[in-house]
Amino acid sequence: MGALDHISDLFDCSGGSSKHKHRKQLQTVEVKVKMDCEGCERKVRRAVEGMKGVDQVDIERKAHKVTVVGYVEPNKVVARIAHRTGKRAEIWPYVPYDVVAHPYAQGTYDKKAPSGYVRNTYDDNQYSGSHLARASSTEVRYTTAFSDENPAACSVM
Fold first, then answer.
1. pLDDT in tens, 25-46
2. Residues 94-116: pLDDT tens digits?
3. Cβ distance 89 to 30 under 8 Å?
4. 3-state class of 112 per DSSP?
5. Hey, which bits of 1-157 come out as E strands?
6. Total-model pTM
7. Contacts of 54 (CB under 8 A, 6+ apart)
8. Does 53 fall in a domain?
9. Does residue 50 belong to any structural domain of this protein?
10. 67: domain CATH number?
């Protein structure tokens, strides 16, 4: 960059637009919002459709899921829904159960999740089994007492 380019950038009067400005990318943002009726659904839809950069809004009321497609930031979508509707909103925390290695492990299984979904575990070491609950010594003792591999096992016929 030469000296003339530097000076012309300093005295640029083009209205504040810069060639170094960061553009937002097209994203799909999924948000969990509790909606009970059509009025709740309408209120959430109006809150999100009014945002700048939103292209499409899909709402699944029974799953309590709002999908927003557009040039938006996920945190701003969540904040907008929470502020405009007064409802608690969070980024969609669920994934299909067949994506997770151990879907019924502690911390992953959630009773409130829609059918076919479990809570997403943001663990990088997901497949090592480190997040699974370990059996206590009393549980091990009782399960091995009636095992076929234990030669001193109780045989009840």
1. 888 999 999 999 999 999 999 9
2. 777 777 776 667 666 677 777 77
3. no
4. coil
5. 27-33, 54-60, 65-70, 89-91, 94-96, 117-119
6. 0.58
7. 48, 68, 69, 70, 72
8. yes
9. yes
10. 3.30.70.100
